[in-house]
Every structure is written in C-alpha cells, then in structure tokens.
C-alpha cells in the first residue's frame, strides 16, 4: 500500500500573501479579527473614524510580529470607501478579503424613532456595508475574486428596541445572499455573514442596562467565525449567515437571553478567548521590553467582572486546571 499525505488547510500561514481590510478594526470584534488574521500571516488593514484606536491595535499586532496598517474611513461615505480600497490596491496590488465589521445603533422604542434616526442606522449598517462591497468589487474583486464577511447582529426574531438596526441587518443578510449568487460563479467572490448575539466588547458600553449575569459570547468567538468564513476552509460556503450566539436566536428570549440558558455557572459551553495572558508591566519593564502589553478585554465594568470570574474556564479548561468542569 502506498502512503498518501493529507494537507490540512489549517496551517499557521493560512492567510499568507493575503491582504484583508477590516472595518472597525481598532476595537472589539474587529480588533480581535485583525489579531487573528495577522497571526495567520495576513497583511491586515484596519479602518475606522478614530485613528488613535486604530494605531493602538496596529501597534499591538506589530509587536506580536504581524503586519497591520491603519486608514481613516467613514463607511457611510461611498467616496471614502472607494478611496480606501483604491489606496490599498495601489499599494499592495490586491485586496483578497474584506470584513465589514463596523456598525452599531442606538436603542429606542419604535414609537419614539424619527425618520432621521432610522435612516442614520440604516445608512451606517446597510449602506455602509454596500459601499465597501461595491468598492471592493469595482476596484479589485470583480476581476480577481475574494472573500467577504459581513458582521451583522442577530435579527432572526426582530430586535425590540432596535427596529432600525434589525431592518438594516436583515437587509445585509439578504444582500449577502443576492451577492453570493451574482458575484459567485463568474467573479469568484464568496460572501457570508456572521451574526453575533450578545458579546462582551467595548461596544456594549452604550448598553448600560444590560444584565451581564448571562453567558455572553466573547469577541474572540465572533472573530474566529469570521476568520473561518474568510478562509479557504470555507471555500464551498457562500451566501450563509452564521449565528455566533450560543443558540440565543433559537429562543423566544432572543439576544436578551435568560439566566438559565446563559449563566456560565450552568453552561457546559466553554468560551474561547484568544487574548494572551496579560504581562505585568508588559512593554515597559526591562524583561518585557518590546513585548506587547495587550489589554485583554475592553468592555463595561460589570462585564469585566464577569469575564474575570470565568476566565479560568475558557478554551476548554477550568480554574483548577481540569478540563470542562462547571464554575
Ligand atoms: C440589547 C441588545 C444589544 C445588542 C448588542 C449590540 C451591540 C453593538 O452593536 S456594539 C456597537 C456599539 N456601538 C454603537 O452601537 C454606537 C453606534 N452609533 C453610532 O455610530 C451613531 O450613534 C449613529 C450612527 C447610530 C447615529 O449617529 P449620527 O448619524 O451622527 O447621528 P445624528 O446625531 O446625526 O442623529 C441622526 C438622527 O438619529 C437620532 N439619534 C441619534 N442618536 C440617538 C440616540 N442615542 N437616541 C435617540 N435618537 C438618536 C437623532 O436624534 C437624529 O434624528 P433627528 O433628531 O430626528 O434629526
Ligand atoms: N458586541 C455585541 O454584543 C454585538 C456587536 N455586533 C456588531 O458587531 C460589530 C462590531 O461591534 P463591537 O466590536 O461589539 O463594537 P465596537 O463599538 O467596539 O465596534 C464598532 C466599530 O465600528 C467602527 N465604526 C462605527 N461607525 C463607523 C463608521 N461610520 N465608519 C467606520 N467605522 C465605524 C467604530 O470605530 P470608530 O468609532 O472609530 O469609527 C468601532 O471600531 C458591529 O457591527 C456591532 O453592531 C453585533 C451583535 C452583538
């Protein structure tokens, strides 16, 4: 019998030679996605409005040996979208991946929502995603193919208190299906969505009334799904929406969840958190000079407490070193 080798797609250089744009890549899920992609060999361009956040994240990535560049971008402006993509292609000769992660909304009952307020959120999430998809298609991907992942929000059961965002995100999911068909076979573009449930990120600072006692997702868990769909491991997957929500979208409670279902004390679904252990005085002390001082999680205070409480139970381990035990 002759031996054959098996060449797994999951290699450290999975994204070698790839140039990938991550919008909103300075914070939260986008920042984690940028870290994941860079650690797998990609050149990552992170773009958003606040340049300081972008520079901090790029520095973290570079200190870890990755390649990351920053660009100012308001995704609501189609002109800026084209300029950013053109600049990337002019410099690197390609844009092989796009992560439309930037987005958000404010909370308001539908009855109090003005037409302008509705339009602002639709503009940001739906138009913003379209602007970047179109710019990527026209500038590079239409001719050379590529992979796009749109980060949306669980809107399967509607989103009480966020009518505008539910409508916009449902629009993104539907747009994704159409583009998968129109841009797939002839242009070689795969396009998919990731729909996070409640994730522990800096983004939740604008949602102070949320009860953090449930098992929320981590930013790394959302990022890992994005990376998978972006990668050749998903080369026959296009037009889908992948929920990353611990099944919250299957419950009547939707993203609000219940303690019974999501309290980490009762959950056997161990979270994945990609951050390295924080180094005491990282980057400043003599022995850690040059090493990145990575802040593990930037989220509202109650959520940080929750994170600290079950940090020891992540990645399949438990606080006392055993695998898979409950808190
Ligand atoms: C509980 C479930 C939570 C699910 C978890 C989700 C988490 C995340 O999504 S994390 C991302 C976190 N970040 C955000 O959500 C913030 C994103 N927000 C924004 O970027 C902006 O606020 C905006 C784009 C939504 C609106 O910005 P802008 O267009 O600059 O807004 P204007 O000031 O020009 O106002 C336009 C229009 O909208 C009304 N409006 C704006 N903010 C609010 C508000 N907080 N509450 C009520 N109404 C608001 C504003 O009044 C204007 O309408 P008119 O007054 O009729 O002109
Ligand atoms: N955290 C959660 O529980 C959930 C989050 N999501 C979605 O996931 C995505 C990432 O959110 P998350 O990491 O949590 O939150 P963050 O608030 O940390 O990230 C949002 C990012 O989007 C950028 N952004 C916002 N508006 C614009 C704009 N007009 N142009 C360019 N960039 C913009 C922000 O940067 P800047 O302000 O500098 O422009 C920021 O970096 C968002 O689309 C969010 O709605 C979905 C479900 C749940």
From TrEMBL:
Catalysed reactions, semicolon-separated: (2E)-dodecenoyl-CoA + NADPH + H(+) = dodecanoyl-CoA + NADP(+); (2E)-decenoyl-CoA + NADPH + H(+) = decanoyl-CoA + NADP(+); (2E)-hexenoyl-CoA + NADPH + H(+) = hexanoyl-CoA + NADP(+); (2E)-octenoyl-CoA + NADPH + H(+) = octanoyl-CoA + NADP(+)
Pfam family, one: adh_short_C2
Keywords: Fatty acid biosynthesis, Fatty acid metabolism, Lipid biosynthesis, Lipid metabolism, NADP, Oxidoreductase, Peroxisome, Phosphoprotein
InterPro entries documented for this protein: NAD(P)-bd_dom_sf, Peroxisomal_t2-enoyl-CoA_red, SDR_fam
Main subcellular location of this protein, as a coarse class: other
Compartment list: Peroxisome
Any one cellular-component term (Gene Ontology): peroxisome
Subunit record text: Interacts with PEX5, probably required to target it into peroxisomes.
Listed PANTHER family: PEROXISOMAL TRANS-2-ENOYL-COA REDUCTASE
Protein name as it appears in the record: Peroxisomal trans-2-enoyl-CoA reductase
Organism listed in the record: Lobosporangium transversale
